[in-house]
Structures are given as C-alpha cells and as structure tokens.
Amino acid sequence: MAAMVEFDLVSPERLVKSAPVEMVVVPCVEGDIGVLPGHSPLIATVRLGVIDIHEQGRVVESIFVAGGFAEVSPERCTVLAEEAVPVADLERGAVEKRLNQAKEALGDAETAAQKKAAERAVRVAEAMLKAIEPRRAA
Question: pLDDT of 101-115, one tens digit each?
Fold first, then answer.
C-alpha cells in the first residue's frame, strides 16, 4: 500500500472531502502544488481551478474550487475553499445560465462594489465552464 496524505476540502457550506489520498494537486496562485506524504509545510492562496486527486498514477476525482487557502504539512493537506463542486456535478446548462446572470449583473452594476462582485461571478462561471472541458494529458 502506498503512503497516504490526509486531504480535507472544506467550503463554507460543508465538508466536501475528507480522505487519505496518494497525491492531491491544488491550483495555487504560485502554480499548481502536488502534495505527497512528507511535503514541506506551507500555506498558499488557491486560485480558481480544479483540484485533482490521484491514486495509482491517475486522476480519480476532480473538484472545482473558486479560490481559498491551502495549508500543507508532511501528513495533511487542508483546503479552505470559497466554493467547491465536484467537476462531475457541474452541468453545462446550469453553468452557462450562471454566467449569463453574472454578465447581466455586471451590466446592471451601479457601484464599484457591485461591479467587483459581478466581475468575480463572471470569472468563477467562466472557470467552471473551463473545468467541464476535457483536459488533455500532459
């Protein structure tokens, strides 16, 4: 049995995932971080993207995250995400509707705060659409 690292993914609504994994790849502002058992401690900012959980050399689960923070220790990787949804649960029609609503809100924004929130909503929906697209192996 391969060595494992404890992985926890938490969103404001719920504990999304808590399980031992062989490796997890987290999209961070500095670049993607592959976490294996024995990883050096770090704290990083998570960007919009997809967390990939690997077992036996392949991706077994992908989860979209809308930013947040990751804390890594030699035994554990904890991600506190602003929003997290398994990629398998993302439906193109629903995401396209979300994108259209965000674009409408951007067009209707009257204050700087409303504009900023709408711009973020557009970026999140666009990143979700990108996450749905099939990814090529590197």
Answer: 999 998 898 999 999
